[in-house]
C-alpha cells in the first residue's frame, strides 16, 4: 500500500509524529469532556537500545502531562520495553517507568499483544503489584477462551485493586484458543465485562460496538452503577483519582466520536487512546496485516463517513 495513502488515512487515527502533536490533540479533545491515555507507537523491538528509547520517551510523556495539566495516563506495550529480548532488563525498564508515574499518582496500562505474551503481560502486572506499584493494570481480550479464568485468578490475588481494560482483542488468534466469529466474540466480551464488574474491579470498556456498549450500560444499571453515582459495589475499592465510579468507556482516536460524545454528555467517563510517534507507518501496516477487517472499517469511514465520524 503506498505510504502517502497510509499516511493520509492514518492522520485521523494517529495524533502525529511528535509528543507536541499529541498534546495539541488532547487539549482540543479536553473541551469535549474526554480524558486520555497516551501510546508511543512501536512494539516488538530488535535491540535493547530501542527499549531505552521508549523508556526515555515515556518519561517525557509524563513530564508533558504534568506541565500541560492534562487528564491522561499511559498505555505501554511490554515488548517495546524489551520483555521478549531480555526479560529481566525489560521488567526493570517497566518498573522504572511505573515508579516514576506513581510519584505523580499516574496510572499505567499494559496494552495486551498477541497470545505469545498474554501470560507474561499478566505476570508483569502482578509482579508490579507485589512490589507495591498498584498504579498498573492490564488489558484482557474477550475473544480468548482463557480470559474468564484470568479474571477469576486475578480476583483471588488482587481483589478490588484489579484495574482492567477489556476489549475484543485485535489479533486474529488461532481457533484452538479463541473465538473467531463476530457474535461469539461479542458474547464472550460481554461475559468478561460482567465478571469484572462482579469481581469489584475497575473496568475500562474499550469498544465502539453498540452490542458491547449497550450491554455495558445495562450491566451497570442492573448493579446500581452509572454516571454521577458513587460505586455501590460492596467488594469495590475506594474511588480512584482521575477515574470514573468503578468504570469508564475507552475509544480510539478518530473512531466513533459521536458515540463517545453522547456517552460523555450522559455523564460517563470517556477516555481516548492517543497514539503518536515516528513509527506511524509500521503501526498502521501492522494493524492492517493483523486484522484486515480494520481496512474495511477505515474504507467505510471514508466512503460512508456518517457511519463513523471522528
Ligand atoms: P468493531 O470492530 O465491531 O467496531 C465497531 C465500529 O467501530 C466499526 O464498524 C467501525 O466503524 C469502528 N472501528 C472500530 N475499530 C476501528 C479502527 N481501528 N479504525 C476505524 N474504525 C474502527 N486490542 C488488543 O488486542 N489489545 C489492546 O491493548 C487494545 N487496546 C485498545 C484500546 C482501546 C481504547 C480500544 C478502543 C481498543 C483497543 N484494542 C486493543 C482493540 C480492540 O480489541 C478491538 O480490536 C477494536 O476496538 C475493534 O473492536 P470494537 O469492539 O470497537 O468493535
Give a description of the structure.
The structure is a single chain. By secondary structure, the chain is of the alpha/beta class. It has a single domain, classed as Alpha-Beta Barrel (TIM Barrel). 46% of the residues lie in helices and 14% in strands. An 8-stranded parallel β-barrel has the order 1-2-3-4-5-6-7-8, surrounded by 6 helices. Helix 7 links the parallel strand 5 and strand 6. Helix 7 runs parallel beside helix 8. It is globular. The mean pLDDT is 92. Bound molecules: dihydroflavine-adenine dinucleotide (FDA). The site of dihydroflavine-adenine dinucleotide has 26 residues, from strand 4, strand 7 and helix 11.
Brief description of this entry?
With 310 residues, this protein is α/β, with parallel strands linked by helices. The protein is built from eleven helices and eight strands. It starts with a helix and ends in a 7-residue tail after the last helix.
Amino acid at each position: 500500500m503506498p505510504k502517502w495513502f497510509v499516511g493520509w488515512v492514518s492522520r485521523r487515527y494517529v495524533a502525529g509524529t511528535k509528543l507536541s502533536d499529541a498534546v495539541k490533540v488532547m487539549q482540543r479533545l479536553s473541551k469535549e469532556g474526554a480524558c486520555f491515555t497516551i501510546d508511543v507507537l512501536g512494539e516488538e523491538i530488535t535491540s535493547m537500545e530501542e527499549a531505552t528509547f521508549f523508556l526515555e520517551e515515556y518519561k517525557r510523556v509524563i513530564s508533558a502531562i504534568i506541565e500541560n495539566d492534562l487528564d491522561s495516563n499511559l498505555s505501554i506495550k511490554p515488548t517495546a520495553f524489551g520483555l521478549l529480548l531480555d526479560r529481566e532488563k525489560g521488567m526493570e525498564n517497566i518498573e522504572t517507568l511505573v515508579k516514576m508515574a506513581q510519584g505523580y499518582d499516574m496510572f499505567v496500562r499494559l496494552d495486551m499483544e498477541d497470545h505469545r505474551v498474554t501470560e507474561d503481560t499478566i505476570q508483569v502486572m502482578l509482579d508490579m503489584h507485589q512490589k507495591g506499584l498498584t498504579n498498573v493494570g492490564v488489558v484482557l481480550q474477550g475473544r480468548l477462551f482463557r480470559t474468564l479464568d484470568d479474571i477469576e485468578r486475578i480476583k483471588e490475588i488482587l481483589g478490588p485493586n484489579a484495574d482492567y481494560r477489556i476489549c475484543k482483542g485485535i489479533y486474529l488468534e488461532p481457533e484452538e484458543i479463541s473465538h473467531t466469529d463476530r457474535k461469539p466474540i461479542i458474547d464472550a466480551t460481554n461475559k468478561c465485562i460482567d465478571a469484572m464488574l462482579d469481581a469489584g474491579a475497575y473496568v475500562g470498556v474499550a469498544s465502539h460496538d453498540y452490542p458491547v456498549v449497550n450491554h455495558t450500560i445495562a450491566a451497570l444499571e442492573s448493579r446500581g452503577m452509572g454516571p454521577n453515582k458513587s460505586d455501590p459495589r460492596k467488594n469495590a475499592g475506594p474511588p480512584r483519582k482521575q477515574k470514573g465510579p468503578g468504570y469508564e468507556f475507552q475509544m480510539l482516536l478518530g473512531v466513533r466520536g459521536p458515540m463517545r460524545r453522547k456517552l460523555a454528555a450522559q455523564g460517563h467517563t470517556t477516555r481516548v487512546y492517543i497514539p503518536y510517534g515516528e513509527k506511524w507507518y509500521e503501526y498502521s501496516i501492522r494493524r492492517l496485516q493483523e486484522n484486515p477487517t480494520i481496512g474495511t472499517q477505515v474504507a467505510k469511514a471514508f466512503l460512508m463517513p456518517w457511519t463513523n465520524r471522528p
